[in-house]
Design brief:
alpha+beta, about 35% helix, single chain, 5-stranded antiparallel beta sheet, extended, 12 helices
Length: about 375
């Protein structure tokens, strides 16, 4: 059984979850009786921690808000989760987040016990990120925070929005949710002047307070807002849109098609539909061929015409080409460079999701139109 001091710290850690615990549940977690739990709660109150209790069948204990907050208490799994989260945040498309993440991780290591500090320190020192560096404008963390607060408080926002073409306009928006991809943050909201749901890239927003008044939330444009924004970024933002049947299970297709490239819909156990967009059907042909799977165009007819032109061009190139003799198999020290570790491939030998060298989120217009 834990001694009193250790048990009080463990009790604080459980109460920090901001949920209500029954006396019986706490007793089981701590390995004591419910009577001991009541005494420990009284000790915490005497130390200034606002622990609220309620009676009845649904009663229990909950840590309330107050000026004196408990210390940061993390178990092994929580400490590792925070460290991984801080490392990942450095590539989240927010201005200055890398430096802030490093500072926060350093502070975390200082307050952790020696055993946990060694684990987190090893994770930090011996982990190398293989993610691509963020290119292009990044969102300001203060803007992200203010947008989130406005969504929570149902408060109208006033801001200046810069489109992909560089033109700026003033917007009055009822914010609903923030949607985050690997490199971009999007605000989904109701544009009061255009009377429609719109998507705004956070890095193109310049807030113009004062904000308000408060509003009654509307029914969102979709239950799955992440999929709705994905369709807007990958499809609706482009002048040419297509629906293509991929002869591949949707789970395997998801490993090749990123949310910013297109949306997937399962047809059966062996095929799925891809909805995507591009600036031209000729560009779309290149994208589809790079997936490396058999497919069938459902629409538009112009995409079939582009495929036929590409087929004829490739046939002429094959007929006119004289290939060099094939090289023999690579042996020795150089052989390792041709395996699963080739640049741009996953451990399965397949390319990473998306189309190499093409920033779909950057090229998409995403200029405040729906999706």
């Amino acid at each position: 059984m834990l001694d009193t001091s250790a048990r009080l710290l463990r009790l604080l850690s459980l109460l920090q979850a901001h949920r209500e615990w029954s006396g019986g549940d706490l007793a089981v977690r701590l390995g004591v009786t419910t009577r001991t739990v009541r005494r420990d709660v009284d000790r915490l109150r005497a130390l200034g921690y606002p622990v609220h209790s309620s009676t009845g069948t649904s009663g229990g204990y909950q840590l309330g808000a107050g000026a004196e907050l408990p210390p940061l208490l993390l178990d092994d799994e929580e400490a590792v989760a925070v460290a991984v989260g801080l490392q990942s945040a450095a590539h989240g498309g927010v201005t200055g987040i890398e430096e802030s993440s490093v500072r926060a991780l350093a502070k975390l290591e200082q307050v952790l016990p020696h055993r946990l500090r060694r684990r987190v320190g090893a994770l930090t020192a011996y982990t190398v990120s293989m993610t691509y560096g963020h290119h292009g404008p990044a969102a300001d963390p203060r803007t992200i925070t203010e947008l989130a607060h406005a969504c929570r408080d149902h408060e109208r926002l006033r801001f200046e929005y810069r489109t992909h073409q560089g033109t700026a306009s003033r917007r009055v928006v009822e914010p609903h949710r923030l949607v985050r991809t690997h490199r971009r943050w999007y605000l989904v909201g109701w544009d009061t002047d255009r009377e429609d749901w719109r998507t705004y890239r956070a890095d193109r927003i310049t807030l113009r307070p004062p904000h308000g008044p408060r509003f009654t939330p509307r029914t969102p444009p979709a239950d799955d807002l992440a999929a709705w924004v994905s369709e807007g970024v990958s499809t609706r933002a482009y002048p040419e849109q297509a629906t293509v049947l991929l002869r591949l299970p949707v789970e395997e297709a998801a490993a090749r098609v990123s949310p910013s490239t297109g949306t997937l819909e399962e047809v059966d156990a062996h095929t799925c539909l891809l909805r995507t967009g591009a600036h031209s059907t000729d560009v779309m042909v290149v994208h589809l061929l790079m997936l490396g799977v058999d497919f069938e165009v459902r629409e538009p007819a112009a995409l079939v015409d582009s495929l036929a032109r590409a087929r004829d061009r490739l046939a002429r190139a094959v007929d006119a080409s004289t290939p060099a003799p094939a090289l023999g198999p690579v042996t020795g020290a150089g052989a390792g460079a041709t395996g699963a570790g080739r640049a741009g491939e996953t451990g399965t030998g397949r390319p990473e999701p998306g189309f190499p060298g093409i920033d779909r989120e950057e090229s998409a217009r995403s200029d405040g139109r729906a999706g």
